[in-house]
């Protein structure tokens, strides 16, 4: 007898048939003797349709009103899923974000959860009911409806699990778990039975946004055990939990990759204290996301700075840097497109300094030139030519024994 | 400088273009120097679509969850209209039913408003904002979302107008006002500039449900002046207000009519105290609406009872009466379809006993046989053959000087 929080995303509740399927999954958990709280997203493309309506009305829709509009999506799903559970003979009740006591900052579009007053949820669980909660939404101090931004439903589920001290938070999605690398590209990619929170954060782009980083961070901070699993298949998924609970027999847990990368180098920047902050503040205020940043001073007075961006942002980046040339006071700009980022991830590498060296050796042994390098405690990222990306991933996947090894860490 | 409550129905907000049009109408009122509260319904067919989704999930959807589902419709409209007002440079804010403080009974699907805590609305009006409120919805004592049933948005508007002591409540709809009879059938039908609340109640089926009876009753009880007017045309509509404010120069204000009527007669009912209540309780519990009821005792022990129903309900009525024959203990059933109801309405007839006689004389003069008669203080209804309906309406419309007369009472 435990307490399980289940979260089902937009694809999993995308039609009447899928909602009925989700109801079955919820009932299975309930019939195992567990208390169940279910968090759901808006059905399929509902949110996109609502956004498009708003854009037809206003070129720059008011954010409070946008939250008012978008939150109807999850409200529709909670009512339909609850009707389905009741129809199947199980007592259930739905709550919007405000009814579930999800209090957020007083901002719109991207509010953080401040507190969850779980009195109502607890009382309904005590009544033996399945509680169905709208993800992605909450209420501000002055009773306005707010939303949590991208990945908001994941965050709602994890936050409720943390507040209720749930035994587990199951994230149901359209993939069966987290893989050693993307199975669409690498045939012998294997599903991982367990990863740590930090590894999950670094592997976030494996499996196409299977779990939002903000939710993983939240789960890590409150030690909420997560499982990523399929809403359609009945196989076991990937557990995400504290490192200490896992053995360390795999140094590298997965190989992540991403194409369409461009390197931009700003040459001859003055070696001043404010150069770096000025350049990245300027880029950020123009909504350009920078990934890897590498700085190397060439002499006492000037420095060269390289960073990677999505290739789509190159024109805008060059324009922004050009517009601010007098302020930034650099000598020249150089860029190289057609690149890709390949990363190895694993908490085992913290205590294993040779991992980066081994990675470079594998790449060199395959005639793959490394253009940029960036390291964190549990990740080594390299930038290579796009044409070498999949070869690099396959070579690393094999070299670090990810294929064919037991997947449980 | 006054306070105006405006209500726009589903057709008036049925598309992005129409919402932008509504925004213009709201701004016109605001620019006249008035404070404005706007109440809106769900867009066009939204509610029907949501009901159909629910029916796909459950044959008998839970009522609380149905309210949770349906109220998303108005929430979408309030956010879009508010975005439109903001886009056009006017400060505005949207409120759901619960945010607007609309407290209802703790029942679902057809709750009555118990109280409106108008603190938030007043405070935003004081801030100079246009306040946009979701019609049809409220909140129960235990924080569940409730709905007000059919005509709910009209009721919301009138209740808010009553609470705020608004100068006027404008009901914008797809007709330009209340007519002496249906202009689609009678060419010289005239728009009435004013009718009393009671007349409006009796004329309810003129202009195809232009205003819900419950809202009219509410307006009457709280003396809220209403105006029914067009959301598309800019002409003056029909004022609905206290009788005392109007002159009495027209005895009959309008001619209402309705086809597809069937008369059912139950013959030889025992003349007991409970016969009538038993028969109509039985019909009501089977959702059969009965309109005119006529009873005539033929002897001391038995009575004959006739009532009118919509012809669509005939089969069900006969089945229900048949199933309960032993309980009801009648001798036989007789029915006549192909009938229509024609009524004259006007508060002037209270003090004018000859009006019914004049009506019968007009019908007789046109060779129209009267099958049933029912009278109230301000209405005389007759049931005639369907083929005579329009002729009856035209003759009465002319005889009571409705065509071509001044329409202001």
UniProtKB/TrEMBL annotation, chains A, B:
PROSITE patterns the record matches: ACT, ASPARTOKINASE
Q: What class of enzyme is it?
A: transferase
SUPFAM superfamilies reported in the protein's UniProt record: ACT-like (SSF55021), Carbamate kinase-like (SSF53633)
Arranged from A to Z, the UniProt key words for this protein are:
Amino-acid biosynthesis, ATP-binding, Diaminopimelate biosynthesis, Kinase, Lysine biosynthesis, Nucleotide-binding, Transferase
Pathway, per UniProt? Answer: Amino-acid biosynthesis; L-methionine biosynthesis via de novo pathway; L-homoserine from L-aspartate: step 1/3; Amino-acid biosynthesis; L-threonine biosynthesis; L-threonine from L-aspartate: step 1/5; Amino-acid biosynthesis; L-lysine biosynthesis via DAP pathway; (S)-tetrahydrodipicolinate from L-aspartate: step 1/4
In short, the EC number is: 2.7.2.4
Query: What terms describe the molecular function in GO for this protein?
Result: aspartate kinase activity
Q: Which InterPro entries match?
A: AceGlu_kinase-like_sf, ACT-like_dom_sf, ACT_Aspartokinase, ACT_dom, AKii-LysC-BS, Asp/Glu/Uridylate_kinase, Asp_kin_monofn, Asp_kinase
Q: Which residues form the ACT domain?
A: 264-347
Q: Which family does it belong to?
A: Belongs to the aspartokinase family.
Function statement: Catalyzes the phosphorylation of the beta-carboxyl group of aspartic acid with ATP to yield 4-phospho-L-aspartate, which is involved in the branched biosynthetic pathway leading to the biosynthesis of amino acids threonine, isoleucine and methionine.
Q: What is this protein called?
A: Aspartokinase
The protein's organism comes out as Cytobacillus spartinae
